[in-house]
Amino acid sequence: xxxxxxxxxxxxxxxxxxxxxxxxxxxxxxxxxxxxxxxxxxxxxxxxxxxxxxxxxxxxxxxxxxxxxxxxxxxxxxxxxxxxxxxxxxxxxxxxxxxxxxxxxxxxxxxxxxxxxxxxxxxxxxxxxxxxxxxxxxxxxxxxxxxxxxxxxxxxxxxxxxxxxxxxxxxxxxxxxxxxxxxxxxxxxxxxxxxxxxxxxxxxxxxxxxxxxxxxxxxxxxxxxxxxxxxxxxxxxxxxxxxxxxxxxxxxxxxxxxxxxxxxxxxxxxxxxxxxxxxxxxxxxxxxxxxxxxxxxxxxxxxxxxxxxxxxxxxxxxxxxxxxxxxxxxxxxxxxxxxxxx
Amino acid sequence: xxxxxxxxxxxxxxxxxxxxxxxxxxxxxxxxxxxxxxxxxxxxxxxxxxxxxxxxxxxxxxxxxxxxxxxxxxxxxxxxxxxxxxxxxxxxxxxxxxxxxxxxxxxxxxxxxxxxxxxxxxxxxxxxxxxxxxxxxxxxxxxxxxxxxxxxxxxxxxxxxxxxxxxxxxxxxxxxxxxxxxxxxxxxxxxxxxxxxxxxxxxxxxxxxxxxxxxxxxxxxxxxxxxxxxxxxxxxxxxxxxxxxxxxxxxxxxxxxxxxxxxxxxxxxxxxxxxxxxxxxxxxxxxxxxxx
Lengths: 342, 292
Description:
The complex is a heterodimer of chains A (342) and B (292).
Chain A: H1 3-7, H2 22-49, H3 55-60, H4 66-76, H5 82-94, H6 108-143, H7 148-160, H8 165-179, H9 195-229, H10 232-239, H11 244-282, H12 287-297, H13 300-328, H14 330-334
Chain B: H1 2-8, H2 11-33, H3 65-100, H4 103-118, H5 121-131, H6 136-163, H7 166-173, H8 178-215, H9 226-234, H10 245-268, H11 278-283
Helix pairs in contact in B: 1-10, 2-3, 2-10, 3-4, 3-6, 3-8, 4-6, 5-6, 6-8, 8-9, 8-10, 9-10
């Protein structure tokens, strides 16, 4: 078994013993999603339980008496057993209540609801750009298999993988904001206020964020397209007189797109995590600013809330990609692919 | 041993090895060969371009960029290596074990891997810094835990494949203990794959560590690291737009060499396959880099 197969379970062949019924497949997906969400919540809560900061001491300062600390501990519910605290915390979180900040007493869910759309809109635009750029590059490379364009795409993709995404962002700032003065180097306007202005502020962060994913998509799409073009049905279609282009877009692309979609599924944590980086680069008021500020003060409820919400967003987005992949790929419709959410 | 010889026979791997040797030298002696103290501020030579006195110029408080780059290699690389060691220690044994566990244990271990994969590095590391504490050790444990599924999956896949081979079945039928089979048959096949994963993971981890120090997590300024230097450059892009190039190039060389080495080990482990050209080998990289 080669390593390429081993490290990429999403494109691995479905197991032979899997029973291909829709109900079972959906139940399996639900069970996996629920387990992952539960584990993510346990990890998040465990981090909070290991926190060194005592909220009462942190909020009240050094002059706090033991009675004050005990009173605040009771107010935050920190004097109860951990299991009870976890059950209570999870129960509230499911209902959308993530507690209040220890310092500002602003509800955590309110702060997150304000910051999350920034990251989500940037990440979504980045994925759209990545599909456009990566798709075009991958198709072009497959069409010129072995040619100059193919080689260029391959080398550029490999080089992109050796750089942290924020360096690409810095290069974009230099080119488009500092030298050419075309776009703002930082700042943000919410999309619901002014979509055109939003795009002006969002395009550079999204572009910076999209390149990595675009490289992965291009690489994967090229590999599966070149493979599919060698299949008998594709050769047969060409022999019947269809142009290479027509065979590619009409027959092959649909089959070859599923592995590329799997790449997007795997890239979602990177895009969300990368959105955090671009926030710092471009001064966006997103979830990372919230988490970073809270992390400096030791504001545990805010920190835990951001981690949990991010995990939920990633899981749900992966679920969407997973379903889309099933709808697209006839082979994975017959038998459930192993590897869960990917 | 044969694998190592085959590896050394590849020009690309020798080249990557040479670059990594230079980086290793800088990890140990970087601070010693630096022309100046990386923290010394030449306060009347702020934000200067390259000159004979400062070969790569100076930063916003007049510190010598070359010195900071050389001295910063140690924390940048050692931090990444620490995370990879933690990841391997967590991932390899659990990957082996999951191939022999019952269905429930297998399912649970796979779900744990799934969960660690979906947690974004940066958000998780910020959360760890905000709860357990902001320091290099905490950040490296956080990165190591999140990278461990890479090792878990590779080890598990290889072990699962070998478990079903006839010679392992034969050994088990003849009464070999699992421990004996593991040592005799499995380990030597798992090792090259773990080495490939380790090289890839080190590259990925270098990028994550740089991203974290860019955010101010792990190593704190003024201690020099590649990511921290880039973070400082961000504020002065209008004055010194070329400044990020040096740390970025150093990072590209290191991560690129690690990727070439990973490919080299993979090829060296499969002697019967004809070695394709460089571009064709890049095409085979269908695996998705963790932090890339």
